[in-house]
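User: structure tokens for this one?
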Amino acid sequence: QVQLVESGGGLVQAGGSLRLSCAASGSINSVNAWGWYRQAPGKQRELVAVITNSVSTGYADAVKGRFTISRDNAKNTVYLQMNSLEPEDTAVYYCNGKTPGYYVVNFWGKGTLVTVSS
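Assistant:
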């Protein structure tokens, strides 16, 4: 099992920045990809950014150029730096860890709320 705890959410004005953190513990060596997802009220959960163990990254079109995902292996922590925030970025942000192979297992944190005011 992998435990994920997010932090860093809060209220910010449009144009501002926040950095989310995801502290991982447990069987983290079983995970080969780490990601951030978000879910806005009334909408489905969507992928925001992903980083693999080979340090490849990917981003949703809506956040490209504004968000950056990174990881600190020494601290077992994944970050999401969010700049130029927009009201449309308001959502609960979830950290995700995904195992490789045919039968993928997903681990989730409980989420952290980001609210961007206009």
